[in-house]
Design a protein that fits this description.
The complex is a heterodimer of chains A (137) and B (129). Chain A has 137 residues and is an alpha+beta fold. Chain A has helices spanning 5-29, 101-133, and strands at residues 34-35, 45-52, 64-72, 78-81, 93-96. Chain A contains 2 helices and 5 strands; from the N terminus they run αβββββα. The radius of gyration of chain A is 22 Å and the shape is elongated. The model of chain A has no long low-confidence stretch (mean pLDDT 89). With 129 residues, chain B is mainly alpha-helical. Chain B is 52% helix and 6% strand. Chain B has helices at residues 4-28, 42-49, 93-126; strands at 38-41, 75-78. The relative contact order of chain B is 0.20. Classes of the chains: A alpha+beta (137), B mainly alpha (129). At the A-B interface, helix 1, strand 2 and helix 2 of A face helix 1 and helix 3 of B.
């Protein structure tokens, strides 16, 4: 029995959620990105989580969170006809990034809620451990 | 000499600590695609503690227990999702948080019982005072 494993599990989840927050911040910061070349436009990034339990194997049921990859969104770019734009291509078109601001705001709220949940989990487990240490005093 | 009251609460504490880990894994994986939430069955753990459970004979430590039984005798099972999600994740955050809080409270209760037993024993050893 070791309650200490909970710190590893919650820590891995907090790490994953903070990466998610960073990715969301990058996406929101680049929400106005426009270019005449579709290859140069910023594409929304999304983190991919997966479960791992290899290093926590001594106790069944333990599962941490691992960040597998940060992938580019495949959503289509927005094509805008703006011939007076300095970046416009020969046809007068510019390409706007595929960042969905609403989606990113939801992502940000979800990540912060999950992060807080993990902090609470650590606090509760820490209290339990401290109480166990003072047993019989 | 083994003191029955201490052993009993120790087993309860062990179960609560293990369940704490399983529930915290569920909460940690709330956003992981295809993660299936799990929980321990207290009834099975209690039965096993009372030596009533049927278990397979193991001739090697590498053998797995039937029914996903863990080493302390508690049964681990997958939660039945009340609201399925698109990414295959079955963690219901409200359920998990409620269970986590309840489990922490039960852990504290076991600690309090243990503490009381130790105090009583100490009182007896010292002959009062």
């Amino acid at each position: 029995m070791s309650l200490f494993n909970v710190f590893d599990v919650a820590g891995s989840a907090m790490n994953a959620q903070s990466v998610r927050m960073n990715v969301t911040a990058s996406n929101l910061a680049n929400a106005g990105n426009v270019s005449g070349d579709p290859d140069k436009v910023y594409r929304a990034k999304q983190p991919v989580f997966s479960t791992f339990s290899a290093s926590l194997a001594e106790q069944p049921g333990l599962a941490g969170v691992r960040l597998d990859a940060v992938v580019d969104s495949t959503a289509p770019l927005q094509l805008r006809y703006q011939p007076d734009h300095p970046e416009a291509d020969a046809d007068g078109n510019v390409y706007a990034t595929n960042v969905n601001t609403v989606e990113e705001m939801v992502n940000m709220m979800s990540a912060s809620r999950s992060y807080k949940n993990n902090v609470e989990m650590i606090n509760t487990t820490k209290d339990l451990l401290l109480q166990t240490l003072s047993l019989g005093r | 000499m083994e003191i029955p009251a201490l052993a009993q609460h120790e087993q309860a504490l062990r179960f609560r600590a293990h369940r704490n880990q399983v529930l915290s894994s569920n909460i940690a994986n709330a956003d992981t695609p295809n993660y299936k939430a799990r929980d321990l069955d207290f009834g099975a753990a209690l039965k096993s503690a009372q030596h009533e459970s049927i278990s397979l004979t193991k001739t090697s430590d590498l053998h797995k227990q039937a029914w996903g039984t863990t080493q302390d005798g508690s049964k681990m099972m997958y939660r039945v999702p009340s609201q399925p999600s698109l990414d295959g994740n079955t963690v219901a955050m409200d359920v998990e948080q409620a269970q986590f809080a309840e489990n922490a409270l039960q852990y504290r209760a076991s600690l309090a019982f243990l503490d009381g037993t130790i105090r009583t024993l100490r009182y007896a050893i010292k002959g009062g005072d």
